[in-house]
Design brief:
Helix content: 25-40%
Strand content: 25-35%
Number of helices: 6
Bound molecules: 1-O-pyrophosphono-5-O-phosphono-alpha-D-ribofuranose, uracil
CATH class: Alpha Beta
Amino acid sequence: MTAAPALGTVHLLPQTRQLRALHTIIRDRHVAREQFVAASGRIIRQLMETALDLLPYEPWDVPTPVGRTYPGLRHASAICGVPVVRAGESMEPELRAIMPGVPIGKILIQRDKVTKLPRLYYSALPADIDRRQVLLMDPMLATGGTALAAIEVLLGRGVEVDDMVFVTLLAAPEGIAAVHARHPGLRIVTSAVEERLNENAYMVPGIGDFGDRYFGTDITR
Ligand code: PRP
Ligand code: URA
């Protein structure tokens, strides 16, 4: 097996001009929903590719059409995607596009609108999830309460923290600290570490409510 990068770190996407332009679209409160969905999808694709690079690989030689052997690599273990419903489901299509047959579990957690505390409603996970590398997907890591609750569900099913990667579009320092205080080894992949949380536990500068903007439930009548 080839060595994977160290555990317990925050893997921040390279802050390219292209990524900054995509952030500019999703952070703009006036942008149309189609643009928000398209730009966030492009960032999520990058996050997924980065997360997949953190998983274990093993040597795998293939013959090339010109008679050479290419000393390649392939994933060394089975993989599973687990979006936190609802907003995490925005990340599922990007993983499926890369790995069409990948099993997908679901964990439904909602953050209470007033207390901001997470409530677990439902989970459905592959029976052999404890033998898989798990990409836990939620685009927003704010207080960290939802992530911690989702991690508990996975731990309860026998998944080791070292076999999880938390994939998130934006992360607050408070959320990263909360998650790493309980699980120092957890790897987090993100496209931005925000300044802080505001008094309503939303990230600043942030993008507002990701789920509402992605799924179109923020329309005021
Ligand atoms: C949002 C977001 C995360 C959570 C993050 O979900 O998608 O799941 O809040 O906040 P935390 O780190 O403070 O727990 P929300 O519960 O609003 O539901 P949604 O997915 O339906 O938008
Ligand atoms: N959930 C969101 O959708 N956005 C935030 O900034 C925090 C939690």
